Structure formats: structure tokens, C-alpha cells
């Protein structure tokens, strides 16, 4: 399989090229030159004997990475090792819940990896793939990551201590939860370099974006194709749980990586109807509901900080897969701050796959956390709550339609990472015995720390970053 940019450049790139880069040289994102479909025979065999999560990952990745790049036995080993350290052998757990109208939904717990967000699912495998290539060619790569909360820690866990790899992470100081911060600054391996910056997650994307492309430098934010590719497996796996009947899936959305993976699953032959929930940062909801592309603007802080994003860069992939590189290049002409309307036919096509979107405000998010606890004695994180709120709203409109499979809601992180949201939702006052001063926070607090370096307001972040990159790059 060959890769190219969403804007038409970088044709003929290998998977390895796409894996070891960030943005393509024309500013676009890497995508496969042709989108494969999941073979019909495979789908029908899955109808009779549902596969494990690992099997689905293997079959999906095989479609995008040829044996010439990664031998099948190596790929299988990487996948088995990646998910071995998850805290459940099923890798994904599903929880049945009901809402205030008595409608049911199923929470898909994508938080059983080391850092307890869905980022672990793709990144733990990405780490193994990187290690394979770096050791094969005896070279070095520097990974550059900007994080609004969860990517940093998941990426650090995936590559800490690995030979031939250094990782530099920038996070917005004071805008992530204590658990998220401790997960990053309590890692002492020499190849991990963490910066606390005085800005928003979109601010710190600026010096990062300016650093690309550069030889030996790569991103494992969800601009990286490999993450999207691996995440396709979530949607395929869920579909196999329902014998590949069409299912509704509600997705908490930030940079739209998860959403693009869902779209790809659909385009590859697995029927999933997607619903996207955003917090107050509603760029993606505007695109889906109104066909309006308005990147940039002030990032609003919410409890669902991993979704506090105004540059949801994966929208570019969503638009690409529903049109072509010419259309995308013309929509994205105005690189930094753009506001435009996408073509009407493209918007209609988008709505065929992504059935709806909802911006969920903070009071509704907190109310949803509270209600879910009251009704189910089950705690959800504030990101998950946005999608539960959307699902609840849709269920209300669909009362009486019971023949379909129950809708699925993606839980993107464990509530343990966000005790502040639980307190704001007043869970302790409604008899929530969930340990808010929980084990996870206490455990992290007792770990040895490595204080982060700083990027202060007014300093030249790009320069600081360049200096760090050259420091870690072998001469
Ligand atoms: C990263 C993240 C999101 C947003 O996912 P995207 O793929 O960027 O849309 C949502 N919730 C949590 C907990 C996350 O860590």
C-alpha cells in the first residue's frame, strides 16, 4: 500500500514514510492512495464466529501495511504485545446503561490501557511498530507531541526507554487534570522530555507545526496516519458484536481522529452510523451540521479538556475521503485561519455517514454525569458525558423504535482521570462511593518526578523547541 497527502502531494510514500512523519510537505495529512475494503468472506466468517479485538486489529492493519514492509509474524507479535498489558483480556469492556426515559445504551470502555484513555489503544501498537523500524534500520527518530491531555501520557508510555527514539511532549500548564499531568512528569526515562507551556493546546500546535517537515522528526498526534488506521478496529469490532448489522455510535470528538476512523470503517464496508458530540469548542459540530469550516478562534476551557480544540485537523481527512485532493486543497487554501463553506454535495455526503452532531455545554455535561450515576451507579468521564448527553437526546426522539441494536457510546477515558468533574457534578453528595481521592491519583503522587521544562509567555517557543530537538538528535 502506498500513501500520499490529502492535498495531492507526497505520492508513492510508503507506510514507513507516513509513520515517521507529521504533516506532509504540502501541509496535508497522509492517507492511503486507495482505500481497501474488508473482504466479504472475512465479514461473513465474523458473523458466525465473532473475532477478538486483537484479530480485528490484525485484519485491519494488514489491509494498509504490506508484508514487504512488516512481515505478518512480526505484526502479530507487535499486536499481541501491545495489548498484553491492558487490564482486561478482552481489551474493550462494554457496560449496559439506561437513561432517564428508560432507553438503553451501551458504554464502550476504551480505557483499559496503561494511561486509561482510548489513546493507549493505537499508541501502544504504534510504539511497537516504531521500535521495529528503528531497530531494523539502526537509526534514530524524535517524536514531537502536543497534548491537550491524554495523548502525551499514552505516547510516553508507548515509547519510554526504547532505543533509537526520543520523545518531546508539550502540554498546556494548568489546563490538564492533575492525573494527566502526573502521568507525564513522573516518568524518569532519559528519552522522555516534557515541556509545560503557558498557553492552550492550539497555541502549542503552532511551533510544532512550524517544525515540520524535518528529517528524523515525527508526530504521533492524530495527524499520524497510523493512529487513525488502528482506531478503525474499534468500529469494526463493535459491528462484529452485532453480527454486522448497522449500529449507531456516539463519539466524543476533539481533533476528529476517532470520528475519521469511524468514517473509514463505514467506507470499508462496515455499516456504522456516526454521531459526533463536542463540548463548547464546536468546530466539528458546525462542519457536520452546517457545512461550515471555521478553524481557529479562542479555545474555551471545559472539563473535557482533551476536546478543547479549535483546529480539529482530522476534518481534513474526513473531507478527503468523501471527495478528492483537489477539493481538499482548495478548501484548505488558507492554511492558518480559515473560514469557509464546503460544497453542498460534499456536505450531503458527509451527512450520509455522520448522521448528526451536538455541541454539549458544561451544565449539561455535569448533569449527565450525575444522572448516569443516579440511574446506573456507573461513573463516566466528562468527555464520555458529552456523547451520552447526545445519545440521550436522540433516544428521546426515537422512543418506540426498539427493533434496532442498542446505540453504542464511546467512553474515551476513565472517570478516574477526572475527579474534578465528578466533584463539580456533585457526585459525593448523591452517595457516590466511588473513591474520588482515588487510588490512581495517590499512586501517581508517590512516584518519582522529573520536573518539566518550561515555555513561558513571550518566549520564542519555536526556538526553544529547535534547541531541544537538536540536543536529542544524535550527531
Ligand atoms: C483525545 C481524546 C478525545 C478526542 O478524540 P479525537 O480523536 O481527537 O476526536 C476525546 N476524549 C478523550 C478522553 C481523549 O483523550
UniProtKB/TrEMBL annotation:
Taxonomic source organism: Orchesella cincta (Springtail)
Recorded GO MF terms: lyase activity; pyridoxal phosphate binding
PANTHER family (alphabetical): THREONINE SYNTHASE FAMILY MEMBER, THREONINE SYNTHASE-LIKE 2
Modification type N6-(pyridoxal phosphate)lysine: residues: 119
Ranges for domain Tryptophan synthase beta chain-like PALP: 110-401
Family that this chain belongs to: Belongs to the threonine synthase family.
Keywords: Lyase, Pyridoxal phosphate
Record-annotated Threonine synthase N-terminal domain positions: 2-83
Organism lineage: Eukaryota, Metazoa, Ecdysozoa, Arthropoda, Hexapoda
Keyword Cell wall biogenesis/degradation: no
Cofactor(s), by name: pyridoxal 5'-phosphate
SUPFAM superfamilies reported for this sequence: Tryptophan synthase beta subunit-like PLP-dependent enzymes (SSF53686)
TM segment ranges: none
Gene Ontology annotations of biological process type: 2-oxobutyrate biosynthetic process; serine family amino acid catabolic process
Presence of the UniProt keyword Lyase in the record: yes
A Pfam family hit: PALP
Protein name: Threonine synthase-like 2
